[in-house]
């Protein structure tokens, strides 16, 4: 009987000369430990930075709070917090997520960080299909999140207050948000989750690393209602990483996902959404159709990335 | 006696801990679930009762518009007593599970696996009693110390208020570091009971000598490990806790939607009644997750400290452990 087994081709495997590698320590431990250390540094630093910025912002503006209802108060707090949160996000993602993970790769594994994280060129077709699959997946993840939001009876006004940090009212603000919410997480989070955690886990558990890292990606966002949709997005991006052997499609896919969210919340002067992708009325049917398209594109991606694997035959 | 385990670097400690968590995960989970299932249910019932009683009392006070009478306080006291009993049962459950898991890990570390049934039978062979004993003794020593200090302060207060003020400041300056010092010195007493079969006094003495000379190192590692562990646990337990409070959140958001963002205090009071089970379930699950990690690194640190020469008082070592330890390749590379 003939059995087929796909074995990945690493074009230029890095030299593992870091301290963890030299000591022949457990690689899976390194993946989880690196993830937890970075997580602790990132979350604590972000909390401290947000607190400081919030304090500076609040002490600078001595306006009288006229709001009376709970909604008005929370809306006011969010408008005060909006900018500190945006600044703290960009600072903490680069300084306390990207820098520690690069340091960990350098110290524990190899000095060839880019090679380890697989920052490698890929074909335009691979990139286009990855982005297209992400675009198709957006309504699916929207429908899943919407399902939980509706189940929990979260009022629309509260969801809108929550989305305030991602809402822009001018082109200038939109561009700033693209830098903060789209480019920054796409680079930093992808470097952590795919470039380090999945890459390291892949060395010991192969394909399973896609699912494990995907779920961890969902958990790390600390949004219980979006856990399922974020985990699925993580698995999708992880799959691109596993098949392409490059971080580039992952960065583009993550960027696309966040860009659609930001664009959907870009409002005109008349409070009208310009681009309604994350409409709160995403139907089950729409989600199903989008899922079919996503599946077809994943299949296509699988086909066009076959060159990264060779087929080993066993008899 | 030669140490059965070579001293470990920080990297070794992390690696050993992670590897042991993986190897003992299902057995430890079985132990934690078996021991904590009943206490968690009891806690859920007690917390539910407590929150309901508190809300009822608030209602009664609001209706009568006067201070709560004995007829209002008595039911609260009885539910409070029930809650305290449930908390005690839960704490005992955590203590027992910690001992049993430490037994599993202490055998696994020398590649000598035992089943969770064996660990449980070993737990209920006096070790549970010693575990309670050391906890009670520690409690009375700390509480006793505080009472004695209180008496001294009262004497000084009777003499002069200024003198008492100085004494309070001095006591705080001395007391807090002293408590921290002693707490860490006795931190491994439960592990000593589980791993080395020591009695109550022996375990406290063993733990005291074990940390001798490594107090700051042990503190640093413990703080680091607990920060990392708590972070990992909070990430995993957040959706579980959220799920256990689903009905409460749903009711809250429904209420918020109906009132357009205005929360009526009366409505909140009703909501408070349903808080209990969710909170108890959430904290129970967090404790359960913590049990899968904390005893593991405690055992690893215990052996590391023993290997550093401060073996303290140990009873007869398991020959199988010593024999297997000599074959265990421990990597001492740089972290």
- If you compute it from the alpha carbons, what radius of gyration of chain A comes out, rounded to the nearest whole angstrom? 21 Å
What is the count of DSSP helices of chain B, taking H or I runs of 4+ residues? 12
Give the overall shape of chain B, derived from the CA principal axes: globular
Which residues of chain A form runs of ≥5 with pLDDT under 50? none
Query: CA-to-CA gap between the ends of chain A?
Result: 6 Å
Total number of β-strand segments of chain B? 0
Task: Explain the layout of strands and helices.
The complex is a heterodimer of chains A (about 325) and B (about 325).
Chain A: E1 3-8, H1 19-22, H2 27-60, H3 70-109, H4 113-117, H5 124-151, H6 156-162, H7 171-205, H8 208-220, H9 227-244, H10 248-264, H11 284-304, E2 309-314
Antiparallel strand pairs in A: 1-2
Helix pairs in contact in A: 2-3, 2-7, 3-6, 3-7, 5-9, 5-10, 5-11, 7-8, 7-9, 7-10, 8-9, 9-10
Chain B: H1 10-64, H2 70-108, H3 116-159, H4 161-185, H5 189-196, H6 200-211, H7 215-244, H8 246-259, H9 265-272, H10 275-291, H11 294-307, H12 319-325
Helix pairs in contact in B: 1-2, 1-10, 1-11, 2-3, 2-5, 2-11, 3-4, 3-5, 3-6, 5-6, 7-10
